[in-house]
Amino acid sequence: xxxDSKKTWLVLIHQIPPKPDYFRVKIWRRLQQIGxxxxxxxxxxxxxxxxSYEDFSWVLKEIAQNGGDANMAEVKFLEGITDDQIVALFxxxxxxxxxxxxxxxxxxxxxxDDDTDDLxxxxxxxxxxxxxxxxxxxxxxxxxxxxxxxxxxxLTDLMSKAKRDLKTPQSNKALKNFTGKTWVTRKNIYVDRxxxxxxxxxxxxxxxxxxxxxxxxxxxQINEVxxxxxxxxFTHEGDMCxxxxxxxxxxxxxxxxxxxxxxxxxxxxxxxxxxxxxVDGFGIVLSGITAAxxxxxxxxxxxxxxxxxxxxxxxxxRKIS
Length: 321
Fold this sequence. Notes:
- The chain has a 4-stranded antiparallel beta sheet, with helices on both faces.
- It is an alpha/beta fold.
- Helices cover 53% and strands 11% of the residues.
């Protein structure tokens, strides 16, 4: 009689159409984000729990909606690959993640000056992003890789050298330079401008006044700051939308805001970078606001209430998915 495996796994088996290429890459990235490992081509495994079931269910649904085929099953491996071998695959995947993380922390540490009080915004923001990055790796470290301690120690050392409490971004001196400003952007606001204006008012400049102009090219007047427009002080940077750039520039370290930023990025840039499950629904809500109201002031007022609610939701979750 065969001895049953001690573990039950969730297995996702998929077949994705060869075209378009970006969709195959998008699914691969999503599987990496949730920490699934491949035991064969197009066969992925996760520990059997409610969170894994939900993660695989969203991937399965997305594959089916785009013309592919996918099946999910609870499996006990009786022959062939063993539980220990699967666990080793998970630990090897996290080993790669932790080693790359430690390398990047050491590179960032070299950029820190001895006088960290004068550390520029870019470096301080990177410290906060490294903390979030480690949190994301730990969230999918299902079998407690021994490299986790080394990664945590490297980050602790980096934060100690930076001599900064990353959880109080409002103390950043940069905020003082943007209080009581008129923030200028293009008329007919939509996703990125709605979100950015809400972020500015709530986290950066509570006295902010907003001005909506016809042209994308606008020369600022005294006490005006431009965002999400041509040659603006705050706009897209690299592959970041304006909302993400504002968070980075002002060193705002907040997991709830990071979750919202991923949603805004995927709606605005349409590249599926983060694969957030909320994108379609939230995009419809914001599109409804733009259709229902002509005034940008009204669009901003209504959308801000929506963003406040979304922020409270993510803030109350123990784990940002």
